[in-house]
Write a structure and sequence with these properties.
By secondary structure, the protein is α/β, with parallel strands linked by helices. It contains 17 helices and 12 strands. Strands 10-9-8-11-12 form a 5-stranded parallel beta sheet, with helices on both faces.
């Protein structure tokens, strides 16, 4: 292998792979910097010295009695049996608090480039559009790039140019291949009358995408729960809540022939978008928490996006977790990111795409969407979804069961009936040896253990954006 253990440093994208060097009788394995794709390694007491790799727990647990998540940004070498971190960005150490003032245009251009990279595809693609800020920005940029590619395609056909194998356009408007591009498709899902569905429709109309708004019922979601947990391979409450609608949506998208979608994961972790960030005591703690959240994405939102979609053979790409964009956004002084009076969460991201002072530039989004308050996906699909889950858990888990958790759970005891219910479903699919790969998502600086945004006191607060 040309670069040896440094090979992953030369890759830009999401990946998990195992390579066998026949000449050296050597195995090298690696996972992308943030862990967008799932990857595990395991060991079996029956085959000492052997190491097993797989993208799913269900492939390993029949063989292995010890399983761990392959750490993101690491490379494995069979010569030493060691895992070595290859991804070492300047922001990785939370003690190094950045002091670079935000540059709004640089931030904007960096995200545009990240989206542009991920539009290189030879398959039908679309965008997941919840109507929240993150997915709406990704959709807005994707639509601009799609229209730009269509114009470049027409020009290339007229000039009889374009010879590459991949579909895409670079920063200089050079088309990499000639293709006929269809209208950009966008997709949303929610309970009837859900706040996100209404917002998504407004964004789609504004952008001009071909939008597909699907609905589901609480019963649909409850019926899918066991399958969702089987594919997700987790019992974390917030991940399951948000993954179920995404799982149902992915099935519908794949049935339409679409094979790749862009999604907005990562933004809340980078910019402190979760409502509990209102309680951050200072810039140092704010930055420390964003770094922790980004590092743990492979256990939560990346796991959800990857497994909810891949369960149906759909690929999800996440522009916010582009290496260059991470370097740009994580080096911003956290004081600029903090939520203060007059500054809504993710203010710097919103401001970067606010073209109010640019009369020659078409707005990226309607103002009410650009400055819309955060809704966590499991809330935005319809508030009765979480209420329905809690009601169903009450029917399945008794007070007596809560008092007598299973001994094999050790100290990892569910603190709600909903969490208990999910853990029992997880145990139906996976042995106890798999539980070590799961981490629960809970807010910091809050007495609330419920991850729903509605549980945070600031959920209904009103904001007025100012410079």
């Amino acid at each position: 292998m040309q670069y040896g253990l440094d090979a992953p440093k030369h890759l830009d994208g999401m990946f998990s792979w195992v390579l066998f060097d026949r000449k050296q009788n050597r195995v090298i394995a690696a996972r992308d910097p943030i862990g967008i794709t799932s990857f595990y390694l395991g060991w079996s007491s029956e085959t000492p010295g052997a190491v097993y790799f797989a993208s799913e727990l269900k492939s390993l647990h029949p063989i292995c009695d010890k399983i761990e998540a392959f750490p993101p940004g690491h490379v494995y070498d069979s010569n030493t049996g060691a895992l070595t971190r290859y991804f070492q960005p300047s922001w990785w150490d939370p003690a190094n608090v950045p002091s670079t003032p935000v540059d709004y245009l640089t931030l904007r251009h960096s995200l545009e480039k990240a989206v542009r990279k991920r539009l290189m595809a030879e398959v039908p693609y679309g965008v997941l559009l919840s109507g929240g800020l993150d997915s709406s920005l990704v959709a807005a940029i994707a639509q601009r790039e799609t229209l730009r590619m269509q114009d470049a395609t027409k020009a290339a056909i007229q000039n009889q140019t374009g010879v590459s194998d991949l579909v895409g356009i670079d920063d200089s408007n050079e088309l990499s291949t000639v293709t006929t591009l269809q209208q950009l498709h966008s997709f949303s899902i929610g309970l009837p009358g859900a706040p996100d569905t209404e917002a998504a429709l407004e964004v789609a109309r504004f952008l001009g995408t071909k939008h597909h708004a699907f609905t589901f019922t609480v019963e649909d979601g409850l019926n899918a729960l066991s399958d969702v947990i089987y594919h997700l391979e987790t019992y974390d409450v917030t991940t399951i809540r948000a993954s179920t609608p995404m799982y149902l949506l992915s099935r519908k998208i794949k049935a339409m022939g679409v094979k790749m979608v862009l999604s907005g994961e990562g933004s809340d972790e980078i910019f402190g978008g979760y409502l509990y960030f209102h309680a951050a005591p200072n810039r140092e703690e704010f930055h420390k928490e964003t770094v922790r959240r980004v590092k743990n994405l492979h256990l939560a939102d990346c796991l959800r996006a990857n497994k909810s979609t891949s369960a149906w053979g759909l690929e999800a790409r996440v522009p916010f977790l582009d290496k260059e964009f991470l370097e740009t956004s994580m080096k911003i002084d956290p004081a600029d990111k903090m939520i203060t009076e007059g500054r809504i969460e993710k203010y710097v991201l919103r401001k970067a795409f606010d073209t109010t002072d640019e009369p020659d530039n078409t707005p990226y989004l309607p103002e009410k969407i650009l400055w819309r308050q955060k809704e966590q996906f499991s809330d935005g699909v319809g508030y009765s979804w979480i209420d329905g889950l809690k009601d169903a858990a009450e029917e399945h888990v008794t007070d007596e069961m809560m008092k007598n958790p299973k001994p094999e759970w050790g100290s990892d005891v569910p603190d709600t009936k909903e969490a208990y219910w999910y853990r029992t479903m997880f145990d139906e699919h996976f042995p106890a040896s798999c539980a070590g790969t799961v981490e629960r998502w809970t807010p910091t600086w809050s007495k609330q253990t419920d991850p729903s945004g509605r549980a945070i006191a600031t959920h209904n607060a009103k904001y007025k954006s100012v410079e």
